[in-house]
Specification:
Helix content is about 20%, strand content about 15%. The protein is built from ten helices and 23 strands. A hairpin with a 4-residue loop joins strand 16 and strand 17.
Length: about 525
């Protein structure tokens, strides 16, 4: 629910930048009650984070406009345009409500109470006029080499036709000499993110720009589009209108060679990601085929239960969930079967109450003590609950779904590496791959927001612990070496958990780290990921 007019930015290593760069960022959040436009969650953070990243790419960022009224916004835009040299990069970023009236797009200021389309035409900022100002700000030379970039991340749905609104979302625009990035397809709407700092689109855009400054801007938009479409299950698909005459990169358009993967970490082709159809309609979880191979399981540097290190050869293909099972996927199972989890049937599950862990009868997969959407990983499921979900999915698909074995999980987590984490040994990089104690804000986050490992698997580190098929053993003496689950030698009252969670520190998120829990137990940092042959 916001608009972004922006020139593309970001990157951690700065190349040689020849042309002057100017940016203006605007974020509108606190819309007054009683009008068409409700207050938003993310715009101020979106604008601030965008400004900070632009500065790393040598942009001169004018004072941001935060919660601006119409006069403030229009004066800031005019002041911005007046400062632009002939050969410059001009970036205008807006985050807030946006809407179209009769095919014209408008940015919605705060403070005024909008009641209908006529109010918008009179009291909002006309995007098309702003574009013309950018294009014609150098009237002496129509051959100016200026790069003009707009990013539109603001759209609304369900504005009433009786109040003069004909279509939802933003209108398509003809923009010669400008590249426009839309947060979603013209005529559609985009999402804020009440659980996070940034909107869905802005968060993914910033993510791409932090590491992709060397890419042409068109590729930056495309990568952000793919990430947004994936995390929203294709509901929100960003769009681009490109009328630039040359290339533009935030970090000098230098192709940075990627380090080669180790021989044991092949990249999984896109066709290896699949979803099985359900008998009752819809699709099962996204699964990734994992290639055959060998690896050394465990760690000599870890705890005693991670030893002895032993070679495991998985001489069969298997698939594992690309993401942790979400609350929405588990809800589908519950609605179909009327299943009640052990926490619901018993004394609830264990949860963090701010100072300590406590079992509460009102804690279960529906209520974790903090807000969750259906895109968050399911919590408070016991090993028995996880098995029941896997069995239902097997019946729905006709495929042998199950919990992964410990060996399968660690092999998939490592993705060909021999380091502590799937990306190396540097725990300082964990924030790029995991939600954990340092960055989670003491809660889960929607699956797939961080980087994947080389097998294309997300959240193998952090977010929630994941149940495994095996029974718990205190070390690897006598463990299977063929990848199978270790079901003998102990009673079945406890089972391993892997991956760490939003609550844990970096040590607990290592690929080799092991924990366990009772078969019937569950808490608000434990979930699951499925496997199948």
């Amino acid at each position: 629910m916001r608009l972004i007019l922006a020139c593309w930015l970001l990157g951690l290593s700065i190349g040689v930048i020849a042309e002057p760069r100017f940016a203006l960022v605007i974020g509108n959040k606190d819309y007054p009650k009683g009008g068409l436009f409700l207050p938003l969650t993310n715009p101020l953070h979106d604008a601030q984070d965008m400004a900070e990243l632009l500065r790393t790419y040598q942009f001169k960022v004018l004072p941001p406009v935060l919660d601006g009224d119409q006069q403030t916004m229009e004066e800031a835009i005019q002041n911005f345009v007046d400062q632009l040299p002939q050969e410059a990069t001009a970036l205008l970023y807006y985050s807030g409500h946006g809407v179209q009236v009769q095919g014209v797009n408008y940015l919605i200021p705060v403070k005024y109470v909008f009641r209908d389309a006529a109010d918008v035409q009179y009291k909002a900022v006309n995007v098309h006029q702003t574009l013309e100002k950018l294009k014609n700000s150098d009237p002496k030379d129509r051959r100016s080499k200026r790069v003009n970039i707009l990013i539109l991340d603001a759209c609304l749905e369900n504005l009433e036709q009786r109040k003069g609104f004909e279509r939802k979302g933003l209108a398509d625009m003809s923009v010669t000499g400008v590249i426009v990035g839309y947060a979603t397809s013209p005529g559609d709407f985009s999402y804020g993110n009440r659980m996070g700092r940034n909107s869905v689109y802005t968060s993914k855009l910033l993510e791409v720009l932090r590491t992709g400054g060397h890419l042409p801007i068109e590729r930056v938009f495309k990568q952000a589009r793919i990430k947004v479409a994936e995390i929203t299950d294709q509901i929100q698909i960003p769009a681009t209108q490109d009328a630039l005459m040359g290339d533009f990169c935030f970090d000098g358009c230098v192709e940075i060679p990627q380090p080669p993967l180790t021989p044991q970490a092949p990249v999984v082709p896109r066709e290896k990601v699949f979803q099985d159809p359900l008998k009752d309609g819809g699709l099962g979880p996204k699964m990734v085929w994992i290639p055959k191979g060998s690896f050394n399981m465990g760690s000599d540097k870890g705890d005693d239960d991670e030893k002895p290190v032993h070679k495991v050869t998985i001489n069969y293909d298997y698939a594992i969930g690309q993401y942790e099972v979400t609350r929405g996927q588990f809800r589908q199972f519950v609605n179909a079967t009327q299943y009640q989890t052990e926490a619901e049937r018993g004394d609830g599950c264990w949860g963090w109450i701010g100072t300590d862990w406590k079992q509460r009868p009102d804690f279960n997969w529906r209520n974790a003590g903090f807000v969750q959407t259906d895109q968050h990983p399911v919590l408070c499921v016991s090993w028995n609950d996880a098995k029941a979900y896997a069995q239902w999915l097997a019946e729905q698909t006709g495929k042998p779904y199950r919990l992964p074995s410990e060996a399968e999980w660690e092999y998939a987590c490592r993705a060909g590496t021999t380091t502590a984490y799937s990306f190396g040994d540097d725990a300082n990089q964990l924030g790029n791959y995991a939600w954990y104690g340092e960055n989670s804000g003491s809660q889960t986050h929607p699956v797939g927001e961080k980087k994947s490992n080389a097998f294309g698997l997300y959240d193998m580190h952090g977010n929630v612990w994941e149940w495994l098929e095996d029974v718990w053993h205190e070390n690897y003496q006598g463990a299977p070496v063929d990848g199978s689950a270790w079901m003998s030698g102990r009673t079945s009252d406890a089972h391993p958990l892997r991956g760490g969670s939003w609550y844990n520190d970096d040590n607990w998120l290592r690929c080799a780290y092991r924990d366990w829990y009772l078969t019937t137990g569950g808490d608000i940092n434990g979930g699951l990921r499925l496997s199948r042959m």
